[in-house]
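User: Predict the full complex structure for these chains.
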Amino acid sequence: MRRRPLAGRVGAALSLAALAGVAAFGALSFAVSRSVYADSNRFALAESARALANLAPEAFAEPALAGAWAARAASGSGFRLTLVAADGQVIAETRADAAAMENHADRPEVGQALAGGSGWSTRRSATTGVETLYAAAPVLRGGSVVGALRLSFAAPELAARLAPFALAFLAAAALSGAAWALAARAVGKALVAPVAALAAAADDWAAGRLSRRAGRAGIPELDALAGALDGMAAELDARMRESESRGRELLSILDGMGEAVLAVDAGLRVRRLNPAARKLLITGSGTDSAGRSLLEALGSTALADLASSCVGSAEPMEGELQLYRGERRHFLVYAAPLGAPDGRVEGAVLVLNDITRLRALEQVRTDFVANVSHELRTPIQLVKGFTEALRDGAVDDPAEARRFLGIVSRHAARLEAIIDDLLSLARLEQANGDSLGIGRTKVLSPIADAVAALDSRSPGSGSRVSLECPEGLEADVNPGLLEQAALNLVDNALKYAPPDTKVELSARDEGDRLVIEVADRGPGIPSKDAERIFERFYRLDRGRSRESGGTGLGLAIVRHIALAHGGTVSVRPRAGGGSVFRLEFPLRIKDEEDHGGTDEVACAERGH
Amino acid sequence: MHSRIQFMEELSRLHHDILSMGTRVGENLAKALEALRSGDAALADEARAGDGAVDAMQVTIEDRAAVLIATQQPVAGDLRELVAVFKLTEHLERIGDYASHLAKAAKRLAKEPYPRSLAPLESMAELEIAMIRDAVAAFLNRDSELARACALKDDEVDASHKAFLEEALDFVRENPEKAQQGMRLIRASAWLERLGDHVTNICEAVVFMVEGRHVELNE
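Assistant: Here is the predicted structure of the two-chain assembly.
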């Protein structure tokens, strides 16, 4: 069944009521006017009959003249006139032959007139065959009734007279009915339109256009409703905006976080992740990350286990794990259960904090502490051991005593060297450009000095070094530090390379960089150690390098000298075996041009 | 109808366990590789200890698959899938063993560094970590195309193996006193080469499961 709209229903009901009213009123007034009209006709007919009856005795006095009298009396009028004798015999008739007519004493109006009153009747005429209005009056002569005079009038003529009125009534009824219907429709619409407007507003709100306001119809009840709805929409709008902006805030916090954040559902499928987490995803054949299983997306059983026990226990969890993405990376992971309002656990939020660098630094620090205590303890133990041996009697054997004292003195010197190097390192670490004493320096002289110093320390070693450096090469450096760096690198190379091989020391400029390289034919440095050999006390092969007399700090000092000059040091394998150590300094330090070169002595002094 | 739903549920649990096992094997290989690079003996031990979990997973998965075959009496595709599960776990277990061997070699190498490049060995392992992942993904997603693409990568593994072999033989010729170290490295390389073959076998099992025919992806 089809539902008709409210406007239509109201309009239809109002139009029907209006039409019924107009029809009833029309019918009633038509009936009333018709009956008034008929009454006045009858009255007029009866009065006319009575008036004519006063003149009629002369017709009855002379029956031969009755027909002529009747014709004269009725001439010019629409009436039909009949004269009836006291016995009911028709003596004159204007529309028919009186002699042919039957006795009229049984006609009601005639009967009443002959009885002395006036009478009327409406019926179909036997003479003319049409609906006819009759009125009769007695004809008196000398106080006695001698007959009756009857006037009649055909009713169809009456109906014909009334027809225009009826048409006018019908037209008026139709017009007013149509007007009513239109008015009712308009009223219906006017009633329903504000409701429809409210509905449209509600639709807009549902579609998210909450800033829209419901219109006012000017109907107090509806306006109150519209006002209430507007208030509700405004409140909703404000709350939505607030929650949206809070959501945006949270998202930008998440996006800006260095920690990787992932949300997983109870089935451990990834639902959401921030950019930092996206970087940890396993790439390759796997498709989109959202909806992928955590295990597949990050490839860590430890992480999946942590997330699963967090979801299972609804408790926050914490753990450490490693991910392998070409290299090993350490993560501190926090897992917090994601709860639904009804207390069910819907999943978990995982926050992965990359602590790889922290781990590496920790490693360097622990190694340093272990190494420094080891490196310092060894000579002290020896000094202690040999002095005790001397005290316990060896002092009495001069040859033995001399040998022991030699050992004690060598290790004391070694201790001093270590402490000196540690202090140099500490000073270099604190140094900045100004205190360093950097100035325009010819590169050749400090590096030649380094070779000479080595040769004087262990004669003959200088001839193993080939030096290559353009005469005019200049750079902004501290010459004392440059000499020490070159010395440490060459010393290192001489120690590890086979005695019959050459160590090549070269300096040149490459663009805006000063490059110093030391190439040897030693055993080479495994790539996994290439970074770590510049750490303090880091040794490739513990026993051997200590035998060779190094402090274990030489390369660390080189690195710090490079850093202090804004440069770098690195090592790479040499083609055909061996290693190449490479120092890179900037050729020019712009800020230093004004005031550099004045106090270079300060640091150069403690070069060695 | 009810038993069909139960079957699917059991299968999905099985899938989860297989993904878990595959991930664990991949992780162990990654750990062994990292131990090889860094000389971290503790990490090498961790990788070897992880292999025990892999073996336990194989038993669990196979038991469950056997129960499914016995109680649900699967036919056609379902049966092929369960048969493939057995092949998959068997090969994954072998791959786990090779990863464990590599970890052991890494530990030895930490004590006695090899002066030449281990890059071919590292790239083999790197490639195989991705291959294991792809092979397991191909099984879980019933993706025979991925399986074929994955098996193709085994050629790169073989090429790396050959390159490393020549390099290592050269090293032994020049340093006869280091022959033992050379032999150990050659063996490690051969393990990695075999490992690749097992991944290829998993890929073949996936193609059989999806397409119902036996293929030889190892040319």
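Residues 2-38 of chain B form the longest helix (37 residues).
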